[in-house]
Specification:
Strand order of the largest sheet: 3-2-5-6
Largest sheet: 4 strands, antiparallel
Structural class: mainly beta
Order of helices and strands: EEEEHEE
Shape: elongated
C-alpha cells in the first residue's frame, strides 16, 4: 500500500563457534555446520508481529567468526501506533531454531 510508511531495521548478525572438526560431529556437508535462526520484530504493547525472517548461517572448523548483514522491513505506522510513548520502540527477537537457550531480545527505539 502506497499510503503506508515503511520502516527498516538493519543489523549485523555474528556467529562465533569453536569447532574442532571431528568427523561425524556436525550436521551439514563439507565439514560445515549450519545454524538456523528466526529474527522477529514486534511491539511490546499489544504484541503485534511486524515482520520476521529466517536466517541460515554456516561455519567451518577453520572459521572462528561468521557475520551476516540482515535487513528487515516493517509497517512504520503500525509499529508507531503500538510502540508506546516517546516515539515508541519495537522488540527484536532472535530465536535459535536448533539450540535451546540461545535466544536474545533487544529493545529498539523508533527514530
Amino acid at each position: 500500500n502506497k499510503n503506508n510508511s515503511s520502516g527498516v531495521i538493519t543489523f549485523d548478525m555474528t556467529l562465533e563457534a569453536d569447532i574442532d572438526g571431528k568427523k561425524g560431529d556436525h550436521s551439514g556437508t563439507n565439514n560445515s555446520y549450519s545454524f538456523g535462526f528466526t529474527a522477529a520484530v514486534g511491539t511490546q504493547r499489544s504484541s503485534v508481529l511486524l515482520c520476521h525472517k529466517n536466517i541460515m548461517m554456516s561455519i567451518t572448523p577453520r572459521q572462528k567468526v561468521v557475520r551476516r548483514a540482515v535487513k528487515m522491513r516493517f509497517d512504520w505506522s503500525l509499529a508507531n501506533s503500538h510502540g508506546g510513548t516517546d516515539s515508541g520502540q519495537v522488540l527484536l527477537r532472535i530465536l535459535s531454531t536448533d539450540r535451546r537457550g540461545m535466544d536474545v531480545q533487544y529493545k529498539v527505539k523508533l527514530v
